[in-house]
Amino acid sequence: MNIKDIFKMSLTGLSTHRVRSFLTILGIVIGITAITLVTSLGNSAEELILGELKTLGPNNIFVIPGRQDASFASGSALLTDSLKEKDVDALSKKSNVPGAVKVVPFVFGPVTVSFDAENYSTTLLGGGGGIDEIYGLETKDGEFFSADEVYQKAEVVVLGSKVAEELFGNSDVVGQKVKMKDKTFRVIGVLEEKGQSPFVDFDKVAIVPYTTAQQYILGYKYIQRIAITAKDEASVAGTVKDIEQTLRDSHNITDPDKDDFFIQTQKDLAATLSTITSVLTLLLASIAAISLVVGGVGIMNIMLVSVTERTKEIGLRKALGAKNSDILSQFLVEAVLLTGIGGVLGIFFGSLFSYLGTVIAYRFYDINFPFSSPISGALLGIGVSTVIGFIFGIYPARQASKKSPMEALRYE
Amino acid sequence: MALIEIKNLSKIYRDNEIETVGLNNISLKIDEGEFVAIMGPSGSGKSTLLQILGCLDRPTSGQYLIDGKFLDNYTDNELAKIRNKKMGFVFQAFNLLPRLSVLENVKLPLIYGGYNEPERNKIAFDMIKLVGLEDRINYKTSKLSGGQKQRVAVARALANNPRVVFADEPTGNLDSKSGEIILDFFQELNDKGHTVVVVTHESYVAQSAKRIIQVRDGRIESDVLVKDRRIIKEDGLIK
């Protein structure tokens, strides 16, 4: 008996119970659909996030206060107030960080912007001069504040397009006065619509000089981020080293393990985020895999029923000279074919749903969610479903092959 | 040398500690070219004897020889090969696979016998022609009458050109005319040199054999040659 004979027999066996075969593989179809969908959407999400991250600019370096490995167990404070004005000054010195083209401190916090009776709660971003260039922001009306205005703690604000629209409707915004924390600010600019961004939604932001934010709104003296633009991508690594050295000197730190700041580059962020999305994808896929086990048990159950029902057939085949291994292969291939077909259907539906998901995200939520071809998910799905067929098919197939021909023939 | 020989063979069934004696110390020889009818009342052990002779079951004790070879230590697979190469089976309940066509049913033993597809088709077609069902070759066997089904079973039993054909009550589910056709096939086969062993409780079936073995309570009660053998073709019942 050759492989072709085995497949033909198994297919005949399955086609005699079409409805039952279909219902049996539903569990597998659902499981593989879920896995394909999750891995495909996970890949899409990763692509989307990494794509967004690129808008940060590959030359930008972010200094963040605190200790990266600060754990509650070690009892160390989170040190969120470790970056001060003097650090900005130190980093701005060419002799300290020769690769830095721009050093921009910033702070952020929640704020409510008011105009007449209208209130809008959103994120306040306090930046140094040049924050617009760091994030690639453009104004559609008016302009950004200057370094002088930062120095003078000028009471000026640049509003996100959405904030402006909510507060002022379609009327002119530049030159109007808004209130934040009982302080009056003059609107000097409105941002272009930018859409989604990885960390801040710039359509819904209010940007003021960081000095102003510290003084009048947030009420503290420390700095939450320092963004530094390096000359070019190649000099990022060297610049990071210079920044570390400068800050250690400034903070009197000799042991790098005791750094009270950490540094992120676009590359670091990309690596971190892609780890997070991969772990999430894996987690979701594992949950989906549980349904495969359930499906597998269903297959085993039906195969056992089928073996019992077909006891006479097994006896007859044995009487005609089928070896135990012939019977074993026939039933095992039936189980594997069942799960394999389930796997193929699952991949089809998973890809379809994933594609529909990206279309819906684009149409209704305006998110440019890239469709990620689920090839790795598909291969995984086929592999997993075949293995499931094997695992849950082997026991019923063995039961079938062990039947004595005489007892099987007698079975009623 | 006998085709099949059994010596002091017993078969005891155990079910929940209760022992039932199927065969009790039987010795028997069947030579090449014989046509043997095994008779006896129900529960006498005649079917058990056929199953042992047909290598469908293993004896509890005693010896079994085919072509002079002891089968004591044969594995399941070796027995399967012997059944496939040397034996053919016809059952009372036909035991065809109902969803398969006539051709596919007859091809079954050939699939397990290692023939390639063209050989299978040719042999199966010849066998189906032999039993006169060539116009039904692609019918599902569930669509056939009882007599036609048993003819398919005969074709299947002959496909591997077996040395011996075992038949367990082959006419039990058939009307008398269909039964006679089957018996005629057996006589023709036997004339061509095949050994035939038929289990039956009907004397007219036994009378068409050459030798009758009476079994009772798991023992051989009598073993005689048939005197007035019924030759079916001469009775004018066929064709």
Description:
Chain A has 13 helices and 10 strands. Chain A is of the alpha+beta class and about 400 residues long. Chain A folds into 2 domains: about 5-55 and about 270-410, no CATH class; about 85-260, no CATH class. Chain A has a 6-stranded mixed barrel with strand order 2-3-8-5-7-6. In chain A, α1 packs across α11 (about 325-365). The longest helix of chain A has about 45 residues, at about 265-310. The model of chain A is unreliable at about 70-75 (pLDDT under 50). Chain B has helices at about 45-55, 75-85, 100-110, 115-130, 145-160, 175-190, 205, 230-235; strands at about 5-15, 20-30, 35-40, 60-65, 70, 85-90, 165-170, 195-200, 210-215, 220-225. Chain B is globular and about 50 Å long. The mean pLDDT of chain B is about 90. Chain B has a 6-stranded mixed sheet with strand order 6-7-8-3-9-10, with helices on both faces. In chain B, strands 2-1-4-5 form a 4-stranded antiparallel sheet, with helices on one face. With about 240 residues, chain B is α/β, with parallel strands linked by helices. In chain B, β7, α6 (about 175-190) and β8 form a beta-alpha-beta unit. Chain B has one domain (about 30-50, about 75-235): P-loop containing nucleotide triphosphate hydrolases (Rossmann fold, 3-Layer(aba) Sandwich). Classes of the chains: A alpha+beta (about 400), B alpha/beta (about 240). The interface of A and B includes residues 312, 315, 325, 404 and 409 of A.
